[in-house]
Write a structure and sequence with these properties.
CATH architecture of the largest domain: 3-Layer(aba) Sandwich
Pfam families: SBP_bac_3 (PF00497)
Order of helices and strands: EEEHHEEEHEEHEEHEHEHEHH
CATH class of the largest domain: Alpha Beta
Protein name: Polar amino acid transport system substrate-binding protein
Keywords: Signal
């Protein structure tokens, strides 16, 4: 069995992953799991989207500057399994957001190129370095002030600890605990709020260990520096596989919220094209099939633009 080695969690390689429509036309929604996911590999469950083909009416919505270059540059922080992370070669981007990026590219007649960057740097670069961002962005008011967001999945938050929970970490009693988290995430904000509540009640503050990469947060739980990490529920639930069973979820899923594809606020044409392409993948079943391949739930059925509340 191939393993996504623990040392790979520390890698910070620059990478890209490309996807394009298959040479043999097929009906949309006829993608299948790749041969890799049909093996005993516990980490790579890539869904083959080569059967997803261009939809001319949707592709026609693209702004000329994107359509003419033939590529869709997608920004992602590729250390957030199973949404977006590196394969065993530590170079190739895989994950359900990566599969989605490729499928969206196919619908638009473009080659999707996923480019890696630290999570906190992604949104400021949308519309300049990246055409769009697809990297587990929770839709929230402060982000909607800066960018457009198209909903596609509903995700909660969970804690992951060392297998067997040797520190007896209790998600309902986090005061004074060391908790790792990725910088710029909703979970980092939430931990700050939890810590304030702790000190207001006369308890010790949370020792919040923030890392630019989720992989570093994961590694520091495995290594014992942090008692737990706090992340999106699919990430916490998937953490056992790439760490060889060294982690487990405690406390279940909390605070479910939609995540969205990020597009520049002033790019109405690309926003419309991305929204229509996402809706197409929802309608033909491709999006749900991608998530099924990765063992993830939460697929939305309506690609809503800038949903409130």
């Amino acid at each position: 069995m191939r393993r996504f080695l623990a040392v790979g969690l520390l890698a910070t390689l620059t990478l890209s992953a490309c996807g394009q429509a298959g040479d043999t036309p097929q009906e949309p929604g006829t993608g299948t799991e790749s041969s890799a996911s049909a093996t005993t590999d516990s980490t790579d469950r890539t869904f083959d989207v080569s059967g997803v083909t261009k939809v001319d009416d949707i592709a026609a919505l693209l702004p000329e500057e994107v359509a003419s270059k033939g590529t869709l540059i997608v920004g992602a922080s590729t250390d957030y399994a199973p949404a977006e992370f590196r394969a065993d070669d530590l170079k190739t981007a895989i994950g359900y957001d990566v599969d989605l990026s490729k499928a969206l590219g196919n619908v638009l007649g473009l080659e999707a190129e996923v480019q890696d960057a630290e999570f906190a740097s992604l949104i400021p670069a949308i519309g300049s370095k990246f055409d769009v961002g697809i990297s587990s962005f929770t839709i929230r008011p402060d982000r909607l002030e800066a960018v457009n967001m198209i909903s596609y999945i509903n995700v909660g938050s969970s804690y992951a600890v060392k297998a067997g929970n040797p520190d007896l970490f209790d998600p309902e009693d986090v005061c004074g605990k060391s908790i790792a988290v990725q910088t710029g995430t909703d979970q980092e904000t939430a931990l700050g709020d939890f810590s304030t509540a702790c000190t207001d009640a006369g308890n010790d503050a949370i020792d919040i260990l923030s890392y630019a990469r989720q992989s570093d947060a994961t590694t520091n739980v495995v290594g014992g520096k942090a008692a737990a990490f706090y992340a999106d529920s699919p990430v916490a639930g998937y953490a056992s596989a790439p760490t060889g069973g060294q982690l487990e979820v405690v406390g279940g899923v909390r605070d479910s919220a939609p995540q969205g594809i990020v597009v520049a606020k002033d790019d109405a044409a690309l926003t419309d094209a991305m929204q229509q392409a996402m809706q197409h993948l929802m309608d033909d079943g491709t999006w749900e099939a991608i998530l099924d391949a990765w063992g993830v739930e939460g697929a939305l059925t309506t690609a809503e633009l800038n949903p409130q509340g």
